[in-house]
Amino acid sequence: MASSTSSGVPTPSPSPRPNLTQLLNSLLPDTTNDHVPQLRLCPDLETFTDRLQDHHAAIFEEIYFLVHSANVQTSAKDAAFRQHTDTEQALNEALEIVEDLQREKTTLSNAVNRLSTLATQSIAPTTLSPAHPDPEKFDGTNPKLLPAFVKEMQMKLRMNKDWYPTEQEKMTYYVSRLTAKAYDQVDHGIGEDGHLTFPDVSAIVSLLCSSFGDSDAVNTASNKIFSMRQGHQPLTTFLPNWISTASKTKFNDDAKIAFLKQSLHRDILHRLSFLPDPPKTLHDFLDAVRKADALLRSLEPTYYHKKSIATTLPHHSDPTAYVTPNLTDTPPATDDPMDLSAAQLQKTNFKVGNYDPATAKRKALTSQEKEARKAYAWHFK
What we know:
- The protein is mainly alpha-helical.
- The protein has helices spanning 20-27, 37-40, 45-54, 56-127, 146-159, 167-176, 180-186, 201-212, 217-227, 235-247, 253-263, 266-272, 282-299, 367-379, and strands at residues 3-4, 10-11, 323-327, 343-347, 355-356, 361-362.
């Protein structure tokens, strides 16, 4: 219990001495109870002092036993700690060995890849596909050549895909076929080491189309197809251009067939008029057009040189039959302004073209008339 001073402030009482028996029980295992009987009988220091006088030899022997046991336990702990340290060190050494093995594995894998590449290169001349022709280089001067260039490049990369196995190699080849203004469009995507930063070939194609392609190809093709005419061109020249233009429009087959009929030579249209069942699809109509052209060329190889539009009036068996009203000076019989009885029709020497009814022959054209006819024919060519 706490005691109080004269000032009234409580002072702590001294802590009780530890029970020696409890201390021994907490320090020693149960197996050692039989080895320290004297110390077990000393619950406090006074008892220990009393028993030390009577049993000092036994108590010193027990103290020696305790010291020896403590030393043994300390040695065991030190040995366990050393064993743990040795195990940890061995584990660290094992981890270092594993890391060394990983590095050796990576080195060997790289060596195998290099050997594989060298082996592939050594047998490449006998295993690569036959060389497909290189497309003409595109410089951007004539943007109309871009669609054909893109198609040819796609065919080259498809036919020789084993020549360019990676996307980087495909892009490198693609850029090698560009010059002048076209090359300038992709120059920003080429690093100092020649590495291309574009994701793929389609990115290069998209850039070229945005720079040199028609931004409104559908509208351009739709306007162009209105004015396309075969004229004096062979069908083998005209039809591919017409099909290419029509494919860019959004017209359906019926509209395309109607436009193509307006464009074809009149002899082809004449042949098509004999078909009992007119084609309904553009594919079938094109097939019929080609067959009609083949038949016409077998009869007259240059039939398309003939004029598609007649430029002269039809011949009449009796040119003098053409009449024109000729008003006489006879006064009207009545005052009715709608009375046409005074009008008399009579034959006149009405000329048709350069036909002279008086001689029933065509007169020779003058040089001015010839030039005028040439200009007229050229206008409708």
